[in-house]
Specification:
Protein name: Gram-positive cocci surface proteins LPxTG domain-containing protein
Number of helices: 2
Number of strands: 8
Mean pLDDT: 79
Low-confidence stretches: none
Keywords: Cell wall, Membrane, Peptidoglycan-anchor, Secreted, Signal, Transmembrane, Transmembrane helix
Shape: flat
CATH topology of one domain: Immunoglobulin-like
């Protein structure tokens, strides 16, 4: 019996040592950043509004001292133009260049956390279409820029709805005249 207790105690001690010495996986939540734009497809010579937020996990330098700054340093680059700011919530607007054909530009946003060691980067593809062309021209027989059926089909459908309504109305009138309706 003493051997069984000794083996059980040794097993428990080994288990506690194993758990106690294991590295802490995801002991601290990670810092994440979110970047949004008002539209990923814009017209030439328009504007792109960028909004950035961050979920900060503030760490110290190992000696119990927090970072000197409590704000996030943002750097956003679009078409060679760079905007920076030191704030928790980032808002900026870029001018869209003039293009003659549909072109894709990369918007790159980087957030440097207050500890100056943690960074968060996001890249978005912004499609710029030439001025005056909301959608490419098409050669199919639908209504322009709607994807709907031909106008002739819409008119025929409207005519059928009207004919059905007139037919029902006339049928009800005839039933009322002949007295075949129920009260």
């Amino acid at each position: 019996m003493k051997k069984l207790i000794a083996i059980g105690a040794a097993g428990l001690i080994a288990l506690f040592m194993l758990v106690g010495l294991a590295p802490a996986a995801s002991a601290y939540p990670e810092t994440t950043c979110n970047t949004t734009v008002d539209a990923q497809t814009v017209v030439s010579e328009g504007k792109v509004h960028v909004h950035g937020t961050v979920d900060i996990v503030i760490t110290d330098d190992g000696n119990g001292r927090k970072a000197a700054s409590d704000t996030v340093h943002w750097v956003a680059t679009f078409n060679g133009e760079t905007h920076t700011a030191d704030e928790d919530v980032f808002d900026t607007t870029f001018d869209v260049p003039k293009v003659t054909k549909t072109t894709t530009f990369t918007l790159h946003v980087e957030a440097v956390m207050p500890d100056e060691k943690t960074t968060c980067q996001r890249s978005l593809q912004i499609t710029v279409k030439p001025s005056g062309s909301v959608s490419p021209p098409n050669n199919h027989p639908h209504l322009p820029d709607t994807g709907g059926p031909r106008l002739l089909l819409l008119i025929a459908g409207l005519g059928l709805v009207i004919a059905g309504a007139v037919s029902i109305r006339m049928s009800r009138r005839e039933q009322q005249r002949s007295g075949r309706h129920a009260h």
